[in-house]
Each structure stands twice: as structure tokens, then as C-alpha cells.
Amino acid sequence: MASTKVAQPSKGLKEEESDEDKELQIELKLLVDKITGTDPKLIPPAIEMLKYLIRTATTSMTSVPKPLKYLAPYYDLLKASHVKSTNVDIKKSLADVISILAMGTAGGEEAKKNRECLKYCLLGTMKNIGDWGHEYIRQLEKEIVHQWPHNCETSSTMLMPLINDILTFNCTHHAEIQACDLLMEIDLLAMLPEYMSRNTYERMCMYLSSCSKYVDDVERGKIMRLICEQYLRFNEYSKSLIIALQMKDDEMVHKIFESCKDKVTLYQLAFICARHVYPIELDPEIECYDELTNILSNSHLSSYFLTLGRELDIMEPKAPEDIYKTWLEPVPPRITVLGEHLDSARQNLASSLVNGFANAGFGSDKLLTVDGGNKWIYRNKEHGMLSATASLGLLHLWDVDGGLTPIDKYLYSTDDYIKSGALLALGVVNCRVKNECDPALALLGDYVAMDNQTLQVGAILGIALAYAGSHRDDVIELLLPLISSSSMEISSLSSLACGIISVGKHDNEVSVTILNKIIDMNGTDRLKSAYARLAGLGLALCYMGSRDAIDVPNEAVSILEEPFKSIMETILLMCGYAGSGDVLVIQELLHIVGEKVDISKEGKKNSAEKKDSKSKKDSFTKIKVPKKPEWDYSIGQAMATLAVAAVSMGEEIGAEMTHRIFGHVCRYGDPSVRKVAPLAIALSSVSHPQLNVIDVLTKYSHDADDEVACNAIFGLGLIGAGTNNARLAAGLRQLAVFHTRNPSQLFMVRFAQGLVHMGKGTLSLNPLHTDRMLVDPVGLAGLLAPLVALVEPHALVLGDSHYLLYFLVAAIQPRWLLTLDENLDTLPVTVRVGQAVDVVGKAGTPKTIAGIHTHTTPVLLTSVERAELATDQYDVVGPTLDGICVLKKVKNVKV
């Protein structure tokens, strides 16, 4: 028969065929002849022999097994024999062979279209399907996924036995990732726990966790809950807690603490919650209740941080001149003096901030804590005295017991600005620390309702920082009446304070109060104030990380007039999806950034008048007068630019892609978008000074537009915060020379220098923690407040509201790896530190770090570094060596 002839290979291929290949072709042809022949006794052994030859065929990774290649021409003939056969066993056995042939090119596109591999597999014996190899299983999985939606009821009964076999094979042959993919595609992920074992659960959970970033909210919830339950099932309490914190599931968090009976593990759980500022009420009957409460209150931070400072021998305070290194600046002394005299009060203010941030947490400096330190405060003016006094709080950061006394004397000052600064300093000292005596509320509460606006500002900001993330009802009730204040500054700061206190908690009372205030201002000039955006941020912070929950306030703000409506919708989107890496939200925000704003005739008229008046002013004077806040119709796009960075920062690939987009925005965007782009670039790389980011921001720090330059300089400080990066420090010194005659830019340069040397290089502003798996909502809120204020730099931060920079305190954390023993005493151990490597879905047991250096704890880690224990004497009970880790001593058991 013509159909039984072996396909003639090409001349070139024929030359390559060996004698063994020719023998195999002849043997296969004989077997096919027996199967399609008339002797029923020869058919079963011929089929078995054919199966054997296919199973045992070896091949390279890039070529088709030879039996499948040589049997391809007989595919239709074998199908015809299957139809004619009346013996049930023979039909099933032959269906197995046809199914495996359909996997390759034998049936052509028609076989693929009709899913014949799956069809004949179901008609076959369905025994030991794994014997055909991983590629066959993958082909079946692909066809099951395509078949499932078409005939779901029939599919579930017919395909379930096959699916069970495939899952069993995958989970016992190092193909757990394929098992997860199959069940996610057919929406049967609930089956997965049946196939998880102690050897496979970790790899599967890690993969599912990475997949959860790319699915919708409903599917994400299912995946996260499954991961959390499986970690708990295998007693991985710390990993289970991380997933519960990502879901913000209070019930699950309590369940994890109740399920865990090991004291050391409970300590580690408490340290994770304390780092995340996650308020949790423990059962008083729980083991080691007092120690856990102490850890959750963060009262350990100051003592452990000072231990780190002593270990690194950096307790000697630094003066602002040590940070600036003015002796390295190639500038004649005369010009430097002239530069200082142009705006000496502003430079003194910069030195106060630099002094505070550089010596943060160490309790001593060379300006304020020395004899006659209050003389320095009087070298500032009005609001400058407020920020200078508040910097005392930074020096005693987290030290509630020791920090209140040196600040207390300034509360009795006759100058309102100094008194207000002391109130803010009290809040800074208590930031992220919960004290049973509650000194912040006791000292600040009386000043909140005062008629004196200067004192109110300090008290409101102090309470906001002291109780950030606590969601204390009594504190919120104290601030809520101030939201309806007639003063725009007090109203907006109160809204922002309530937002940061109840961050991510969807507090209905707070959100309704702020919304009502914003709606009352609709149609008035009050919405044009830069403070109005801070009120909007306060509302959005209530929904931090809440995703779809922002739909309700979105509907409410839809009645506002443009552009404030767009601004509010964008801020809500930014906070609701902050750190999520949601691709669809990023695309939506990029669409907002890219569209052309339709400015009304009134807007055009205002801009024309502004341009005309500016040209007249410039013709008479060379002094640049800061612009007053005006109705900017493209400011919604500016917020969207910032939002792209906030959303993408939790997902590395997305953050990397947005850097290139920001480059285009800086070149071609509207002026308001251009001045925010440097802030967005910095936000996506906080405390992580990458060379390409430094180069881009340095370029824009020389921009002709002073607002773009100021924000770029601030961005340089943000990306280098707490890193002591030498390249960045040298670049900022050059900028100080370049901007000697520009007071605003020089102020920003000095402040950026202080940020780079923050805590003498031991602190970080990065809100991502615990191996970048969690986004600290309080830290992110602390970053967003000054960034939103800097959308119009001269209106707030470069004006009288520089105290907003103190919101960065909420994001300050040591960038350490501190190891403790079972009694919570510091324990020096040897660790290997290197660049973190993504091992999700990789085969075997790949290395999790690269470029290894060996150190003894405590050590400082950058935002992209990871550590591993280099000793077998201790076990790590946490999910990773990061932050404060409690180690358990391994018991030597003699066999």
C-alpha cells in the first residue's frame, strides 16, 4: 500500500542516517504492518514492542525522539486501525500509542486543533502516563486547559482521573510548578494541598506567592489564603504571618500567634509585626506575654540601635560641616560667605535638619546637646526655629525615656515657634514606639485645641508621628474636630494626621469627615491651595493597600470640579494599590500621564495673564520670586507620575520598566509633570543608589527650571538615604558649588547631604522589608507626604512648611541584621552577605545570594542584599535573615 511506504528523507538527511537508524525504521515498519495486519495474535505483542521502543528512545534536548519521527507517516494508518479494531484491550493500548504520536508533528495542525493527544489518552488505558515523559504530560496539560472551558461538566467527570494522575506525577518528579499552573488555569487550586508534601510545599508556595501579583483581586485572595494555610499546616509560622500581613487579615494573624507554641518563634513573629507597625492585641494567657508586648511596642529599638553604633564605633557626633566637607568644595571663601549671607537663615535651617538626620538616634550632636545649644535655635527665624527645635527629637529618636527630658525645657519657652518645635520633637521621639505611660498624648493633647495656630501645627504633627499606624480611637477623636477648621493649614494637617494614624484601616468616620470638608470647599479658591492636596492624601492614606475598597471614595469625589477631581482619583489609586505592582493599574496611570490635558478658556486666560505679568516683572528685576499656588490643570498628570512609582515599587520588573518611561516623561511631559518625574524616579529606588538613577537625577539637578532642579536634588537625597554613598556625596558637593547663588537649590543640596549620611550611614527610608516581601504602610505614608508637598515646592517645603520634611521620620528604620539569642540578648554569629538572587521556580536548590562576603553580626545590609547563616550551631526561625532575627541553638543529639 502506498500509505505504508516510509517517507523518503532528503538527500542530506539520508547521508547522516546510520545503520542503526535504518534498522530502527525497518523494525518499526514491521511492527506497524503487524498492528494493521489481519492476525489478531500478533497485534498485542507488536503494540507492546512499539510502546517499549518509544519509551526507551533517547534523544537530545533539541530533537524529536527517532521512533516518533519515523512513525509519523503511519499516524493516519494507526488511527484507521483503531477505528476498525473490535477488541477493547487492543483499542485502549493502540490509543496510547496514537496519543503519544499526536504530541509531535505526526497529526499536523489538525491533530493539535482537535486535541487528539488528549482525546486518545482518554480512550487509552490511562495507566502509568508518566512513563511517556515530561513533554507528553505538558502536552496533555495544555490540551486540558483548552478543553476545560468548552465542556466543563463533562470535563470534570472525564478529566478528573487524568488530572489526578498528572498532579501526582508532577509532584513526585520535581515539576510542582507545572502542577500549580494547571490548577490555576482550570480554577481548581483548592485541590493543591492534597498533593503538597514536606519536600515540595515551600517551592510551590513561593511560586504561588509570585503569581499572586499578576491576577485579579478575587483570585489573589484565594491564592494568598491557600499559601497562608499551607505554611501554617507545615508549622512555618513566620512565613504564614508574612502572607497574613500582606492580606491584612487580623483573624489569621491572631490564629498564627495562638497556634505557635514555641517561645523563640513567637519572639520572631512579634519582631515582624513590630517592624510592620501592625497593632495586635495578644491574649494575656499566651506564653511570654510581657516579653511579646515589649517587642510589639518597639521599645527595644533605641537600645539595640545604640548597641549597633558602639559595635561599629560611630558614636562620635558629626557636625554639619563634617557632612558638607566645605573644605573639599573648589570655591574661594569670599563667594561661600556671600552665598551664606544671601539667605543665611535658610542655610541655618538646612544645617539644623542635616544635624538632626545625620545624628538621628544617637542622642548627641555638636549643635543642640552641647552647652549653650539653645543659642543655635535662635540663629533661625520663626518657622526655622520650629524645625531647628524639632531636630532635637531626631537626635533622641525612639528613646522615649531618655529623650523627653532634654526636650521638656523648650516647652516653657516664651517663643511660640520654639514651643511648637518642641511639641513636634516629642512626636518624633515617640514615632513607631508605643509607651505604656503614653507621654505623647499627655503632653500634646492640651495644645491641639488651642487658638494659637503655631502651637497647633506642632501638636498635630507630633501626634501624627507619635501614633502613626496605631489607629487609636481616642487620638483620632481628638483630631477630627480640627478637620473642619477655618484655617486651611490646620484643616489639611489634621486630615493628613488622621490619615497616617489610621493608615490602611478604612476608618469610615475619618474618611467621611475629610470627604465632607473637601466637598464643602468645592467651587471655592480654597481647593487651589497646595494644602488641599495634603487633605486629599490624608483621605487616601485611610485606604492604603486596600485595592478595590477605593471605589466608594472614588464615587464621592466624582462630584468635585476639575482638576481637583482628577487629582483625588489619582491619589486614591496611588494609595489603594501602593506597592502592589499591579500591571493594569500602572497602565491606567500611564494613560493619564500620556493624555493631553484640555485646558478651559479660563485656564488659558489665567496662564496668559501670568505669562504677561511675569515678563513685566522680569524686565525690572532679576530676583526670582516664588510662584504662588495657582490652578494647574495638568497637576493630575503630575500625581499620576508619582503614583506609577508608588504602585510599581513592590514589583522589581515593573519598577525597572518604569525607569525608562520616566525618562520620556522628563523629556516630553508638561512642566508640572517634569518637576514630579525626578521624585517618581527617586521613589522607585529609595535608599538604593543605582548608578543609572544617580546619573539621571544629577542631570535634572542642573535643569533651568528651579522646581525641577530642587526636586531632582531632593530625589538624590532620597535614593542615597542612609547609605553614605561616596559617589553621591561627591556629586552633591559639586551641586553645592553649582547652586551657590541659588538659595532654594542650595537648601535642597544641604538637606540631601544630610539624608545621604542619615544616622551616619546606618538608617534607611526604604518601606520594603523582610526580604522585600512586605511594604511598611507607615513608612510609605511618611514618604508620600513630603513627595506630594513637593509637587509645588515653593508653596510648602521651600516656603514656611518645611516641617513637612519631618514626615520622613515615619519611614526611618535601621538597615541592619541584628541576631539575638533565646533570651533576646545580642548574639554575634558569622553570616554570608551577598546580592539577593530570585530563585522562584528554579530547579534544584539554587544559591539564593551571589557575590558573597563573610561578616560577623551585627551587619549593615543594603536594600537588595540578603544574608545566610555561615554556622550550623543555630537555626533561623524567621523567613529570612533581615532586620532583627532570633536564633535558636541547635541541640546536639548523639546517635
From TrEMBL:
Domain spans labelled RPN1 N-terminal: 28-329
Keywords: Proteasome, Repeat
Residue ranges constituting the 26S proteasome non-ATPase regulatory subunit RPN1 C-terminal domain according to the UniProt record: 840-889
Biological process according to GO: proteasome-mediated ubiquitin-dependent protein catabolic process; regulation of protein catabolic process
GO cellular component terms, A-Z: nucleus; proteasome regulatory particle, base subcomplex; proteasome storage granule
Family: Belongs to the proteasome subunit S2 family.
Name listed for the protein in its UniProt record: 26S proteasome non-ATPase regulatory subunit 2
Native organism: Callosobruchus maculatus (Southern cowpea weevil)
Record lineage: Eukaryota, Metazoa, Ecdysozoa, Arthropoda, Hexapoda
